[in-house]
Amino acid sequence: MNLLIDNIGELVTNVAGTGEGGVLGIRRKAAVLVEDGDIAWVGPSRYAPAADRRIDALGGAVLPGFVDSHAHLVFAGDRAAEFAARMAGEPYTGGGIRTTVAATRAAGDDDLRDTVERLRGEALRQGTTTMEIKSGYGLTVADEARSLRIAAEHTAETTFLGAHVVPPEYASRPDDYVGLVCGPMLRAARPYARWIDVFCEKGAFDVDHARAILTVGQEAGLGVRVHANQLGPGGGVQLAVELGAASADHCTHLSRDDVDALAGSRTVATLLPGAEFSTRSPYPDARRLLDAGVTVALATDCNPGSSYTSSMPFCVALAVREMGMTPAEAVWAATAGGAQALRRDDVGVVRPGARADLIVLDAPSHLHLAYRPGVPLVSKVLHNGVPQ
Q1: 230-255: per-residue pLDDT in tens?
Q2: pLDDT score recorded for residue 102
Q3: Is 90 exceeded by the pLDDT of residue 285?
Q4: Pairing of strands 2-12, 53-56
Q5: What does the buried/exposed string (b/e) look like for 118-129 if buried means 16 or more CB atoms within 10 Å of the residue's CB?
Q6: What percent of the chain has pLDDT over 70?
Q7: Contacting residues for 122 by C-beta, under 8 A, at least 6 apart
Q8: Residues spanned by CATH 2.30.40.10 within the chain?
Q9: CATH 3.20.20.140: which residues of the chain?
Q10: pLDDT by residue (tens digit) across 320-358?
């Protein structure tokens, strides 16, 4: 069985040199043939091959599915009261993470699974076809392992974040907690994780602790990601580049040396504007990064404390309005950029051989994602070639 999507007014391919060129590689009046979960053919609608089934895009835009490369979906409870306090002027310090840790430890597996399923479903309906999911709200050997086991039921992009914060029972002995993360916790998490991450920030883990944890994770075969430079200047970005991390995430407070280091590396700067929106913090300067030649991705940072959104279209709109990105740059960052942050070449792009993850907009152009913020423009989603 194959499937043809035709009558596409604007097809965003993210293939350099395609169609109108530019970062999005736009083709007009196009069609896409899907077979066995992959894209089999891309071309003009008038030359489209016959197919068993057909979806009429009605002249709307078709894009690669969004790739959300930073999300924390395995948790219990919420922190709405904390959000209300921030909106009343209380600063964000990251301390509320421990509130979620307590709730998550007390929750049953089915409760955690229900939360992941609910949020993953929300994201999929809004066009997110690939989603990374972190642990980090258990912070015991058993709770981190079960968080990743549950996450792995929903994505191949799972990240061990045992080094989110130091839990209360280790508050006076952080070195012992780092030893736990590097030893028994990593061994328990490893069967379910592709990546390892550390919140490298004042009040969480310093550069030396972060380096020790990430290095052990690399030696165990995990790829590296780093929460870096969110709350203030620090060494997280430089550490990410030093270790060849796939991404340095947040990147809110950057020095010239940080930008230069990213520009000379394969490390993607993953920006999370939902966090700045929810914490009333300064937004990252995406324009500065892009002008320096840094690869930029956008992600939701979906979590119950600092960014409780699963909407990549919302993040695209914020990036355009608040971070100096053009609509084309923001859409690329939310699709191909996210794929690069996960070191993937089979998603975030529309070309033969890529995975058939596609979204159809009830709008004629990708521009409408920023032009019409908050409007549910995603009318159809294909994930692995299957209409959702």
Answers
A1: 999 999 999 999 999 999 999 999 99
A2: 93
A3: yes
A4: parallel
A5: ebbeebbebbbb
A6: 99
A7: 310, 311
A8: 2-65+348-387
A9: 66-341
A10: 999 999 999 999 999 999 999 999 999 999 999 999 999
Please tell me the distance from the alpha carbon of residue 56 to that of residue 314, in angstroms, as a whole number.
26
Query: 66-341, what's its fold?
Result: TIM Barrel (3.20.20)
DSSP 8-state secondary structure symbol assigned to residue 305: T
182-205 burial string, b = 16+ CB within 10 Å, else e? beebbebbbebbbbbbbbbbeebb
First vs last Cα of the chain: how many Å apart? 16
Report in angstroms the alpha-carbon separations of 277 from 72, 193, 223, 363.
Answer: 17, 29, 29, 26
Those residues whose C-beta lies under 8 Å from the C-beta of residue 90, and which sit 6 or more positions away, are none
Neighbouring C-beta atoms of residue 87, cutoff 10 Å: 11
Digit-coded pLDDT (tens) for 145-167: 999 999 999 999 999 999 999 99
3-class state of residue 314 by DSSP: helix
Query: Cα–Cα distances in Å, from 165 out to 80, 172, 227, 309?
Result: 20, 13, 11, 22
Name the one residue in this structure whose structure tokens are 């969004």. Answer: 66
Which two tokens mark 192?
């379910």
pTM greater than 0.85: yes
Given a cut of 70, whether residue 94 has pLDDT beyond it is no
Topology at the third CATH level for domain 2-65+348-387? Urease, subunit C; domain 1 (2.30.40)
Confidence of residue 183 (pLDDT cuts 50, 70, 90): very high
Alpha helices in 264-325 (DSSP H): 273-279, 286-291, 312-322
